[in-house]
Specification:
28 strands, five-stranded parallel beta sheet, six-stranded antiparallel beta sheet, single chain, alpha/beta, 15 helices
Length: 661
Amino acid sequence: SPDHLGNADYVRAVATAPPVLLHLGKDVPFNHAWGPIRALGGENQAFGWGRYIERIPPEQVRQRIVQLRQMVNALHHVGVRWVTPYICSMTINGDHKRRSGFWAFYDHWNEYQPIGLAPRPASDPWQWLQRTSAGRPRQYYRYNYPREYYPPFRTNHRYAACWRSTGWRTWLSEVVRFIAKCGYDGVFVDNANSQRCQCPRCLTAFRQYLRRTLKPHQLRQLMGGTPIEQLEFPDKPGTPLYVEMNRFWCETIRDELATLRAAGSRQLGREFLVFPNGGRPAYIQRALRDADFVMFEKTRGDYGTHPGLVFVPLFDGFMLRNCNDNIFEYKFVQCLRSRVRPVVLTRAGWPRRIPRQMLNPDAARLGMAECAAFSGGGGFLVRPLFDVYHDALNTYRRFFETHPELYTGMDSYARIAVLACPEQRWFGNPAHMTMVRTLTRTLTEAHVLFDYIPEIRLNKAVLNRYAAVIAAQLEVVSSKHLKAIDEYLANGGHLIIIGDFARLDESKAERKSWEPRGKVTYCPGVEAVPATLGSGTSALFCPDDSMAPCVRINAFRTLDEFPGRIVVHVVNYNVPLGMRNTGPIRVTGLKLNLPLPENTRVASARVYVPEHEIPRRLTARNAASRVQLSLPELRIYQVVELILEPAADDSTQQPLSLIHI
């Protein structure tokens, strides 16, 4: 919205259901793409024409800072923990020939130095732009450039700026510094993965990157005899050089976010949050893992992207029943064991909103429950309809903050792992991650507790945590990773292979042979994996076959203590979407059948429900290193807390030290 500033009604609305994280639009002193302009709110396309983009004088910028500080203080006062406005990692707008848009501000930059703006960069913004290898401006949002203007802007172009240009680096750091002056806690960075420039300065930096990160023999193999001074950016995808180019771009993005955090932190006097939009798993792993949050903008899906049940009419009397979820996104970020946490933005369809796919209050509860169960500390982005979602927001925030022991100081608890290596796409193998997503649905519907292991954590110590590891169409495997898998197998591990495995090394050379030294099972397809694992890996029983696939579970165990606790999250996706829904389809007769850590048993068990203040005790039956419990009726979300004790025949055993790997 463009009308938050000075709006007491807005602050009062937020006060009815204050979120932990409030993500605003371009409510900032300096607009990243236009400079100091009249407009507030929105994202890149919003308010990009007419009076909205008129430049305002320095005194009005000074007044705006005061007003923004008042608004942020008021939002904090009513209970919002973090407030973050919108910027973009690369967008700059205008026409360099007519000196309009950002160029109009650049020509008057020095007028704003008396209010604290840094000295004007010497190079013209035209020199800040990202370029293709042919030297043309790189376009991320395509239109008939340069003969026409970007349609939402009417009389101006939309360009992408290069982080490695001194001018853009200076300007965006100043945008963030002035945001911090307003008391904001951090910044949302849109288009965070859109630094893929091939200008001369980036080519020089790419060559330096290769020299710095590769050993001499690796560099010689990569270059194939070509001197590195003659290296150009590759135009052929799927090659080892193409992989290195993407890793270089990730390093560029990582540097950008770190620089913006530092600029904000220096001004704010405390740590400044960085919240990029960039839901590509390979880029999250390489570029965004040091951010505080990463947003998955789940725009498109066959049935929208809101979590829950969609009923799609086929013909008279028949409807298609589909269950949407965001489990892959949450679990992938959690598996990195990094600073970053996932935030999911869902929609009822794009560009139009389909009524039967709309997020109702119960589906909003499901979204927050799903996040709590699978993210390890993330967030679900609810639209600011406080009169619609206020009860859901208040109930779940109160529950999370009243029971922090259910969520903090824990790591995932699973005996099965799925190798999830998103850089396979860079190597020309997109089938791998497609199969990982299918495996995710298959295993969650079968109630198998599992983790992902990404490239950056694929080592012997991590592999040894699991009784079985699944590799689906993992065609390219480096020598280092294959050695770790060999050591895992020699240590008694079990590798389940679907499709090709390790046919190519990191240089994409054919392997002559691979002789595994341990238990390897070749599985005909993803659908056969639960049977291959065995019935004992299913941790939940549901008597209703029609409800069972849409009940999902996940588990965490406390760190650094023995025997500790296990927390099991039980989520019911049988929640119809649409504003005319009839409420969740409740599930009864659920039974947990959970394997326990070695030398432990369950001493006591309780189940928590967000809508109830007092937990309910459950009767736990210990048998053969497992525990069995009957669960109460499931509406949307339950959390089962298991208090462990040493098994009776191991009472003299010394406490174990758990290692967080």
